[in-house]
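fyi for ur records
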Amino acid sequence: MKKLYSWLWLLMAAVVATTTTSCLSDDDDDNQEVMDQATYQRYLTEMAGSYTGKTYYFNIEGNGYKADSVAVTAQILGVGDSLINISGIPAKLLARCVGDSAIYKAVVGQPDQRLQMKFYIGAFHQGIVQFGVYPLSVTFDDLEYNGAEHDVVFNFVLYRNILGAYSNGVAELTYYLMDLWEDGRQKETYYSLYDTSGYSNTRYMFLSVLNKRKDTWDNH
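which gave:
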């Protein structure tokens, strides 16, 4: 357990510092388990189940950042569809990134959201299953502001490198808010691929730490 937390927090720090860091160096390749189809399916089955936990978000303060969190529930579907559903994400966590005041007020008043993301297992390394995450967009249809109805869509960064880890019933994953679209057009951009400040993108980062419920350990 301690190893998993240490691994992910080191990963998070690396992602904050650079957007191009690979999670595994070439020197570690010899320690990875060969991921054939049977092994892949075994880890999917092990990960499947219901979870509870927290989603952390980050506020820039001075030359650093402060973490806060909300309680969430989640389900990992590892058989058939490789999908992670995280429920209980307050709409205000998305709205806090919005610069347009009218959109901000409209989104804040919406109910909690369910965040869905596809995932793939990339490697098994030192007892930790490492996986990539592809969050799906969060859509608010027919929001009323500025005297009309608008469709607002929040998109997340789609990473090709590893940004999730699982071990002994604990899943941890990091993801970033990318941009906002209004009525089919890009309205605001958040995450910057070329950010070199080390902290600018941190405001748009989320970290979910999920603990598998005991009653789902054997139900695959």
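The longest strand covers residues 64-77. thats all i got for now
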